[in-house]
Amino acid sequence: MAELAPESAQLAELSRLFDLHADFVYRVLLRLGVPRADVEDCVQDVFLVVAHRLADYVEKGSVRAWLFVIARQVALHAQRSNRRRAHYHLAIVPPVPNDDPHRELVRKQAIELVHEFLAELDEPQAQAFYLAEVEQLSVPEIAAALDVKLNTVYSRLRLARQRLALWLAARVQDAP
Amino acid sequence: MNSPSDDDMFSRYRTELVMDAEARARTFCKLQERVLRGEQPLPEIDVLPPQTAALRGLWSLPAKWVVTIAGLGVGALLVANVVLRGVPLTAADEERVLVAPPSAAGERDRLPSSSALAHEVRTGTTPGPVARAENGGHEATPRAQARSAARAPRANTELTKRTANVAPAPGAQLTAAMRSREAGSPLSDASRAQSQLAALARPQESVSPAGASEVGQQPPAVDPASQAAVTGAAENRESVASSQPSAAAANAELQKQAYVSPKVPQRSDKEVASETLTKEVQLLQAAQLALRAGDTQRSLALLAEHTWTYPQGHLAEARDVARILALCQAGNVAQSKLHAKRFLQQRPESPYALRVRAGCAAMTDSSAP
Q1: Which residues of A touch B37 (CB under 8 A)?
Q2: Which of A78 and A6 is assigned the larger pLDDT?
Q3: CA A167, CA A173: separation in Å to the nearest integer?
Q4: Where do runs of H (alpha helix) occur along chain B?
Q5: Count of A–B CB contacts within 8 Å?
Q6: Domains defined for chain A, CATH in brackets
Q7: Residue-wise pLDDT tens digits, B119-178
Q8: CB within 8 Å: B17 and A111
Q9: Is residue B79 part of a domain?
């Protein structure tokens, strides 16, 4: 790798970014409605864009905001092509479950809990809240990723947190 | 189900929902293959990095169009301005024209009567404008009339605004005539001058009563001889007024012909000269009245107007003298001396020479206590 200087440098940088953000891209793609069977390909597509534009990238803006925007485009494109080959997806089986059933149950609950709450919110609120609370992006990053004003993000987050408090209180009441 | 704390809930989600190691490795391997193969991303998913996007956003499509259109518009305006109006006069040009008296004194066709008329204007014993106009018209040489006929409209074009307070209508008509000239009308120079003069003629006639009233409002300190002259002028004016309808009809005819053929029948030289002279006299008279009323600024403005409109007019000499005196009276002694010096250099034998020397010196003496 070391002898191919420009390409190896590019691949090293790509590898670094992939290690850091692959999970983020994966979650975002799932959240944006990409079927599990296609997520891996879509992650590749996202990082292909990153590899293509690596020369243009200056380490100043937020990578994750950029990745989110690419992922959104990829998800959009995947949905369009999925509609064209819907019959093809019927044949694909869901991913193999974990060996440990209890571990798998805990995992499933943790994921579904968040999905359940996010389903309570409006989509714009849910997006802002997801990026802030789950992915822990900063507010300027979210504003860049969603292409909205800073104050809009703050307002959406405030409303979503109010809803969260109510939702949690309701669950505590239901639980006993 | 135990009550979840929100922090716990989201961090668990984050740690649980990840690609497993196998899928990660597989995905990166495939990605590496695609990159090494030189595969390009699809155009619809090719999103620019944030910094680059911001930079390119500056030169986005709307901005590009706005800048281009604004640039073209400004360029077109500049070109149109230069082509249609020539290089615009700057403040310095205006100053030069206003201050400098016409220098081509040698070329001037002086009329035998012009200095006498000017003298009358200066001393205030002015007969009616029409009487003088006819007098001047008779004695004007054809060459001088042709020159003044050609000159007057051209000078007027630069002064349409200035002349507006004396004769608004001719100014407006001249502007129209000027526009038609600028728009490249196919008429020859001679026919253009003629048509402009024809346009000037009618408002001129409507203005002459105003001149008459001005004469009538002269200050009471006028000697009986001038009173007689005024009444004589009034009679003369009546006779001219009776000939005005026919003159107007002739003008209309002339104007029509000016647009039909480039060969336009000449207006009589006498008419043209008399009009020019009448206007000159009115202007100078107004300046004199303003000076006597103590309004030196207005007087100087009217004289400047005369300089613009009739730089080589019949009453140029009288106007220069009046300006020298007005400047004296305004307290602008240095300027007055400068003008007086220039005047005496250009016209040492002028009948005004004595007056200029003595008058300004007397003024300066009186102004310096």
Answers
A1: none
A2: A78
A3: 10
A4: 6-16, 21-36, 50-58, 61-85, 91-99, 114-123, 129-139, 142-157, 160-163, 168-182, 189-216, 224-242, 244-260, 269-292, 296-309, 316-330, 333-346, 353-367
A5: 128
A6: 1-94 (1.10.1740.10), 97-176 (1.10.10.10)
A7: 444 444 444 444 444 444 444 445 545 455 545 444 444 444 444 444 444 444 444 445
A8: yes
A9: no
